[in-house]
Design a protein that fits this description.
The complex is a heterodimer of chains A (348) and B (225).
Chain A (H helix, E strand, L loop, with lengths): L7 H35 L5 H41 L1 H10 L21 H45 L4 H29 L5 E4 H18 L3 E5 L6 E4 L1 H18 L5 E7 L3 E5 L31 H11 L3 E6 L5 E6 L4
Parallel strand pairs in A: 2-4
Antiparallel strand pairs in A: 1-3, 4-5, 5-7, 6-7
Helix pairs in contact in A: 1-2, 4-5, 5-8, 6-7, 7-8
Chain B lengths: L1 E5 L3 H13 L3 E5 L2 H10 L4 E5 L1 E2 L2 E2 H10 L6 E5 L3 H10 L4 E4 L4 H12 L9 E4 L2 E4 L4 E4 L2 E2 L4 H12 L4 E3 H8 L10 H15 L4 E6 L3 E6 L3
Parallel strand pairs in B: 1-2, 1-3, 3-6, 6-7
Antiparallel strand pairs in B: 4-5, 8-9, 9-10, 10-11, 12-14, 13-14
Helix pairs in contact in B: 2-3, 6-8
Classes of the chains: A alpha+beta (348), B alpha/beta (225).
């Protein structure tokens, strides 16, 4: 099986060099032949043995005098070849650089056609058409999710408000709970759909201390109403990551919500940020059994201790958000009972 | 107190109107941007509750029109749209708060009252939390008619907590509001004041309580009966 060389640059340079070598060989051959003719014409040596040794010495002399020049020429040809081809492919590299900036959050970029070599132009053109179609698809999906959000939330808002303002009857409380569950499910499904559709712009600088403080601040009243306390232990130094602030906050809020739901009354849920770009959410709940530490992050997963009423989407959303940040979410046992859920970010 | 409710979903309007009226507000409801702007010209409302998606335009346009006339009426935005971006757009355009549909009606009423409790708001002069009353002009705090003996800083502290009743006030915000730049600030100054204030409130039977959110700040909540 022949070895295929992937680099166009190297391939062209090698071909150029081969051509050069063939040309040189022909030139040298012609030169030798003509020298021999000249010699044979002027001298009258007839011995075939002599003739052969003469030819050998001529060849030897040639290589001794000019052979090293050929080696140098070969090297120069390779170097020139690489340079020329490299220069010729510069526009292609430029196009690649532009293409690498295209992402779900940035679909309007098109590759420039006027600078690329004509051989590559059809490829670039085809990529641009593909991008057109993708952009339309993204826009449609986005629009669909936005419409779905509006259409689903509006009737839920009406039902929720209507139930809230109806004088309480025991039966109604159950329906209120059902509607509450429906609200959560719709919110989570919409979030999953959003993450699936459009991806996330994760290019901003996010201060983990600040995000954690905002999340704790906004959820503390809810936790207090459920008779649990929230606490924050910020990192002593700045803990900044490249990411999407509202997604990181959403992930953290999901973890806090779980922690509060699963921890005993009067207990404290601690959110701890560390300078190693990690946020821990520490609870005193019943913990996650050993066999479920991976599977609880699957969509629609229900652990053995799951509270009724959840859809099993919260942790899957957290996992998706962390994946998009090239980080991960993990759960470990809290040494004093309960669990520690960690959001771990890779270095910015 | 008179509110303008701008919402195009008639069912929701009916329900919210009843609930807000039950909470003691007088409510004018309209369903178009144009009507909202016309009403704002003729009536002096204490606050506006504004839905974003309206039949004849975007609620944010109403907001922009209001703010361009230097009208500082508190505005609470309602939205069923996708959370993140809209939130930011709304607040940049001069909304004071937002709620995402669906929401609990008690939350809507609580947020509306919080807006009115801001300095300059209709409820901004005498603040209440449970049986606790704070006169922001007379700097006097009473529980069921009896005045409390509080220091100047304690009153200021309580005022900030009452203005954001039920929500966390970060410790840094309190430090910033209570101490001038050139005043020496001990790191435990706020916790010490909170400690005294908390004790006095308990002693005198206030049915509002100061909770600590360790690492973030403090929160005043009405005690559940």
């Amino acid at each position: 099986m022949s070895v295929r060389i992937k680099s166009l640059q190297l391939r062209l340079a090698i071909q150029l060099t081969a051509l050069f070598l063939i040309a040189t060989t022909i030139i040298v051959g012609v030169f030798l032949y003509r020298s021999y003719e000249e010699y044979a014409g002027s001298a009258a040596i007839a011995s075939s043995a002599n003739e052969e040794s003469f030819f050998d010495s001529l060849l030897w002399e040639f290589f001794a005098d000019a052979g090293w020049i050929i080696a140098i020429l070969v090297l120069i040809t390779i170097a020139l070849g690489v340079l020329v081809v490299r220069n010729g492919l510069k526009p292609v590299r430029e196009v690649s650089r532009i293409a690498s900036a295209i992402g779900p959050a940035n679909t309007s970029v098109r590759l420039p056609l006027d600078t690329v070599p004509s051989e590559v132009a059809p490829l670039v053109e085809a990529v641009n058409y593909a991008l057109d179609r993708l952009e339309k698809g993204f826009a449609l999906q986005k629009q669909f999710t936005a419409n779905a959000a509006h259409e689903l939330r509006t009737p839920l808002a009406i039902i929720t408000s209507a139930l809230d303002t109806t004088r309480t009857v025991a039966e109604l409380d159950k329906i209120k709970e059902d509607v509450g569950r429906m609200n959560r499910l719709v919110e989570q499904l919409l979030r999953v759909a959003r993450l699936d559709d459009i991806g996330l712009d994760v290019s901003a600088t996010v201060d983990l201390n600040e995000r954690a403080a905002t999340a704790v601040e906004s959820m503390a009243p809810w936790a207090l109403a459920k008779n649990r306390r929230l606490a924050l232990v910020p990192a002593p130094n700045a803990a900044n990551v490249k990411g999407n602030a509202s997604a990181i906050e959403a992930a953290l809020r999901n973890l806090i919500e779980n922690a509060v739901t699963y921890s005993p009354p009067e207990s404290e849920v601690v959110v701890e940020v560390s300078s190693e770009l990690k946020i821990d959410v520490i609870d005193r709940g019943s913990g996650v059994p050993a066999g479920h530490k991976e599977s609880i992050f699957e969509r629609f997963a229900r652990g053995p201790n799951s509270q009724p009423g959840g859809a099993g989407l919260g942790l899957a959303i957290v996992r998706d958000i962390m994946k998009m940040h090239r980080g991960r979410v993990e759960v470990a046992d809290n040494s004093g009972g309960g669990s520690v859920f960690s959001l771990k970010f890779s270095n910015p | 107190m008179r509110l303008l409710l701008v919402e195009d979903e008639m069912r929701l309007t009916d329900i919210l109107k009843v609930a807000l009226e039950r909470a003691g507000f007088i409510v004018d409801a309209v369903r178009l941007c144009a009507d909202a702007i016309a009403n704002l010209k003729t009536v002096s409302y204490d606050a506006m509750i504004l839905d974003l998606g309206l039949p004849d335009g975007d609620g944010l346009d109403v907001l922009a029109a209001v703010r361009s006339k230097h009208n500082s009426i508190p505005v609470l935005v309602l939205t069923a749209r996708d959370a993140v971006e809209d939130r930011v757009i709304g607040l940049n355009n001069g909304a004071d708060d937002y709620l995402i549909k669906p929401f609990a009606v008690v939350e809507l009423i609580a947020r509306t009252k919080a807006l009115l409790r801001r300095p300059g708001g209709a409820l901004g002069i005498v603040l209440t939390a449970g049986n606790l009353c704070l006169d922001t002009v007379g700097r006097d705090v009473q529980i069921e008619g009896k005045s409390l003996d509080l220091s100047r800083r304690e009153v200021a502290l309580l005022e900030h907590l009452m203005r954001r009743l039920g929500r966390v006030v970060p410790k840094e915000v309190l430090e910033e509001r209570l101490y001038a730049i050139d005043e020496p600030l001990e790191s435990n100054a706020i916790p010490v004041h909170i400690h005294h204030l908390r004790r006095k409130l308990v002693e005198l039977g206030a049915d509002a309580e100061i909770h600590t959110v360790r690492g973030v700040g403090y929160l005043l909540a009405e005690t559940e009966q």
